[in-house]
Amino acid sequence: MTTALIVSQVLNGLQLGVILFLVAAGLTLVFGVMDFINLAHGVQYMLGAYLVAVSVAFTGHFGLGLVLGLLAALALGFVMEILVFRHLTRRDHLEQVLGTFGVILIVTEAVRMIFGSAPIAFPVPATLAGSVTLFPGLNYPVWRLVILGVGIAVAGLLWFLVNRTRIGMLVRAGSTHRETVSALGVDIDRLFLFVFAFGAMLAGLAGAMAGPLVSVEPTMGDRILIIAFVVIVVGGAGSIKGAFVAALLIGMVDTLGRAFVPDLLKSLVGRSAAATAGPALSSMLIYLLMAAILSVRPSGLFGGRTA
Predict the structure, then answer these.
(1) pTM over 0.70
(2) Could you state, in order of their start, the residue ranges of all structural domains in the chain?
(3) Which of 43, 44, 131, 221 is 20 to 30 A distant from 69 in Cα terms?
(4) Which pLDDT score, from 0 to 100, does residue 214 have?
């Protein structure tokens, strides 16, 4: 176990954490402001990857394709909220789960009909395709460092929007005192429309950042949606700060666990037993972490606090 390997895996964990944060940020705002469970958030992550990949291929320029793809993800968020999600906001959670699960099935099959089931190409832009030497023995991909930078920049921007702007004040107030905010003349439905569309664009940005690293295919959002819900539960529903801290924590635990737990088990229980138990235990770590945190703080790390 070398220093280069440890540093590389720590950076990989942080990179996974910022992608989880981009997905979970919009999801936790929607849940916090409207008490709305949106299982279809994973398909918005998937759609963002497809939209940016197609836009990049069409324009031949990554920056322009990224902008066009994210604008399309934003517009699609507006359309989906108006046509579907607006009619579910005042239903109970079971109906929201069933309705948004139906959206998953419809959108996934529509994407499969248009693009097919096979993964589509989403190459890293040529200028960011290389690696940099962080120290002797460790060459780290530039694109992964870009993901880290983008994630931290977006986290800072969200902190400013939520804590230093009027719209952020309304979001924070709406997440805890929805009826009072409505009584003061604020159109909660319009607020939800913009929060939902912005969250869809953030999920699309996460898909665009992850696209060159994973397979861009119709079911790519399924697993990350589950982990995003874990992030929300651990961080505290409605808290951007909680989503950021929990996303980094879970990204680190998941990455380091998968990288090192099997090798650690080999020294304890032997090679054959470790080969069987190691992967299973590694995949369980984030859920064990969630159970441990909730046993101490049932509302999450920052549950019940301001965003």
Answers:
(1) yes
(2) 11-217
(3) 131
(4) 87
3-state secondary structure the chain: CCHHHHHHHHHHHHHHHHHHHHHHHHHHHHHHHHCCCCCCHHHHHHHHHHHHHHHHHHHCCHHHHHHHHHHHHHHHHHHHHHHCHHHCCCCCHHHHHHHHHHHHHHHHHHHHHHHCCCCECCCCCHHHCCEEEEECCEEEEHHHHHHHHHHHHHHHHHHHHHHHCHHHHHHHHHHHCHHHHHHCCCCHHHHHHHHHHHHHHHHHHHHHHHCCCCCECCCCHHHHHHHHHHHHHHHCCCCHHHHHHHHHHHHHHHHHHHHHHHHHHHHHHCHHHHHHHHHHHHHHHHHHHHHHHHHHCCCCCCCCCCC
* Residue 50 pLDDT class (50, 70, 90 cuts): very high
pLDDT digits (tens, 9 = 90+) for 210-226: 999 888 999 999 888 89
pLDDT digits (tens, 9 = 90+) for 242-299: 899 999 999 999 998 888 877 777 777 767 766 667 677 778 889 999 999 999 998 8
Question: In this structure, what token pair is assigned to residue 67?
Answer: 């902008």
What confidence tens digit (pLDDT) does each residue in 167-210 have? 878 777 766 676 777 777 777 778 888 888 998 999 999 999 99
Burial label, 94 (beta-carbon count in 10 A; 0-12, 13-18, 19+): exposed
Inter-residue contact 278 to 261 (CB < 8 Å): yes
